[in-house]
Design brief:
- By secondary structure, the protein is an alpha/beta fold.
- It folds into 3 domains: 147 residues, Gcn5-related N-acetyltransferase (GNAT) (Aminopeptidase); 182 residues, 3-Layer(aba) Sandwich (Rossmann fold); 50 residues.
- The chain contains 11 helices and 18 strands.
- The chain has a 7-stranded mixed beta sheet with strand order 1-2-3-4-5-7-6. The chain has a 7-stranded mixed beta sheet with strand order 10-9-8-11-12-18-17. It has a 4-stranded antiparallel beta sheet with strand order 13-14-15-16, with no helix packed on it.
- Strand 11, helix 10 and strand 12 form a beta-alpha-beta unit.
- The longest helix has 17 residues.
- It is elongated and about 75 Å long.
- The chain starts with a strand and ends with a strand.
- The model has no long low-confidence stretch (mean pLDDT 95).
- Bound molecules: S-adenosylmethionine (SAM).
- S-adenosylmethionine (SAM) binds next to strand 9.
- Pfam families: Acetyltransf_1, Methyltransf_25.
- This is GNAT family N-acetyltransferase.
- Keywords: Acyltransferase, Transferase.
- InterPro entries: Acyl_CoA_acyltransferase, Bact_Acetyltransf, GNAT_dom, Methyltransf_25, SAM-dependent_MTases_sf.
């Protein structure tokens, strides 16, 4: 467990010790360096940072001991990670990843990118940032500028290859016995008004719902998924705003907002999920409905000490879900096998939500639960239902 606390002048020696140990441990301390002078200079620089109102310098404490330094600047347009260094004693324990994950959540919440500079002679740090989804946006022969944003992350996840494979006409989630009842129920719930789909994707539901006679708009992050939608419906028929369903605004008022196929779980923090409910509410006219289709977390299938479950094990496809029950996170690993021993891996991270927590999020946004069924044909929802269709309603 780590904790961050604001640094003070009294931490200057500690921060110099962390920086010296970390830089030496990476083999990046210049040969023959005068250690005393180096530390004195670093301490002076730390004190300047403490006094600088444009940047936040923090001590990273692990097991109650100061063992790292973090410097972050926050502007209107970005979160800038100016520096993170951990003492070698606490490296490779997930502390750096946890700190960066928290900064990502902050950037996602503020709808700005998280930016950093990484020196070219620091391949370990570069590998970490690559793994955490940062992409190079500039730099020179000494350092790279890298950036992470929620939009870029979703575009990486839902890229052209995934988007091209997404539609399976007549099969699976595109089967008539899935889509028929979905469209009929949504059309009924729209009650003659306009519908807005959050995370509209390739238009699996929006296209047939629009053909059924309901005017549909959408919000979508992925350019590639939207490109596939545009092969089926133009922007006059189904207008789509590119953006985050937790924050983006679509012109007009709607009687129905819907978010299906478990996609609220693509928002990885409770805060963003609550924001998504609030965003649905502000698009709806009085009495409007927000419909969510979501699976019930499968924690009963998780034996103690085993952090993963196998969802499907077909010859050509294996689904493995790995859990972090503290964060309420599950990562679905989809392995698609072709001929031979090669496999393609597609990973989607989720924050799973219990029905009761979902109801509380709805309540925070001013909704009440109108109905909950096990599927689109209004089958009764029971303790054994694997998923649910929940209809939330604003007061008339
Ligand atoms: C499982 S697909 C569902 C697409 C469509 N709703 C359907 O039922 O087929 C998830 C979609 O959510 C989009 N998405 C994920 N997070 C998003 C966000 N925060 N805002 C907007 N779209 C998002 C992805 O780009 C992807 O197209």
């Amino acid at each position: 467990m780590h904790r961050l606390r604001p640094a003070t002048d009294a931490d200057a020696a500690l921060l110099a010790e962390v920086a010296f140990a970390a830089t030496s441990g990476q083999g990046r301390m210049p040969a023959g360096v005068d250690e005393t002078a180096w530390r004195t200079e670093f301490e002076g620089w730390s004190r300047e940072s403490v006094a600088d109102p444009t940047t936040d310098l923090a001590v990273v404490e692990v097991d109650g001991r100061g063992a790292g330094r973090l410097r972050v600047s926050r502007t209107a347009d970005s979160v800038e990670l100016n520096g993170i260094q951990l003492h070698p004693d606490i490296q490779n324990r997930g502390v750096g990843t946890a700190i960066i994950t928290t900064l990502k959540s902050e950037a996602a919440r503020r709808d700005v990118p998280l930016r950093l500079h990484v020196e070219r002679d620091n391949p370990n740090a570069r590998r970490l940032y690559d793994r955490l989804g940062f992409v190079r946006t500039g730099g020179d022969d000494k350092e790279d500028v890298m950036e992470w944003s929620k939009a870029a992350e979703q575009n990486r996840l839902w890229n052209a290859e995934v988007a091209q494979r997404y539609d399976t006409p007549g099969v699976g989630m595109f089967a008539e016995d899935v889509l028929g009842p979905t469209v009929e129920r949504l059309a009924g719930l729209a009650g003659g008004g306009r519908a807005l789909e959050f995370a509209i994707g390739t238009g699996r539901v929006a296209v047939p719902l629009s053909e059924y006679g309901v005017p549909v708009s959408g919000i979508e992050f992925s350019d590639a998924m939207l490109e596939q939608l545009r092969t089926k419906a133009d922007a006059d028929t189904i207008p789509v705003v590119t953006g985050d369903m937790a924050t983006a605004r679509v012109p007009g008022e709607f009687s129905l907002v819907y978010l299906v196929f478990n996609t609220i779980a693509n928002l990885l923090t409770q805060e963003e999920q609550v924001a998504c409910f609030r965003n649905a509410a502000r698009h709806l006219s009085p009495g409007g409905r927000f419909v969510i289709e979501l699976w019930v977390p499968e924690l009963r299938r998780l034996p103690p000490g085993t952090p993963a479950t196998v969802g499907t094990a077909d010859p050509g496809y294996i689904l493995l879900d790995t859990y972090d029950v503290l964060k309420q996170h599950v990562v679905s690993h989809h392995f698609h096998f072709s001929e031979g021993t090669e496999a393609q891996l597609f990973r989607t991270p989720h924050r799973y939500i219990w029905p009761a927590e979902l109801d509380l999020m709805a309540q925070l946004a001013g909704f009440t639960l109108e109905s909950r069924h096990a599927d689109w044909t209004t089958t009764e929802f029971t303790a054994d239902s694997p998923s649910h269709v929940s209809v939330y309603r604003l007061p008339s």
